[in-house]
Amino acid sequence: MNILQPLKLSEEVVQHFNSIDSERKNVLRKYLKDINSAMKDSWIKKLSDLKLKYEKTGIQVITKIIEGTHSSRVIAYNIVKFAEDQKVDMITIGCVGIGGFHEKKSLGSVTRNVSEISTRPVLIVP
């Protein structure tokens, strides 16, 4: 009985990556690291601007970029753990992340998971 079939595309990507010589792999790794760094710098700037904007209105804002695996459950756990460690009053999170809406879901997977596992109030905004 087959429950989950491997995606042919992922197999092809892995096979292709494994066939690349080590010099080209290093170039690709550096390129991906540079992209990740540029994205992180961009988010640091955006979060800094938002923090400044809302602190001017008297709202205390804590920002943190949490890096890790691309698993919505792990990301949600890290967000909830951070909120608990910081003793935040409420988690505010967007209803849809970078993955967008699934046809039959009204929430992004990270948002859904945060709302399911958090012991703190969660405000979901559009």
TrEMBL record:
Residues 72-126 form the UspA domain. Pfam families: Usp. Signal peptide: none annotated. Coiled coil: none annotated. It comes from the Archaea. InterPro entries: Rossmann-like_a/b/a_fold, UspA. This is Universal stress protein family protein. It comes from Candidatus Nitrosocosmicus oleophilus.
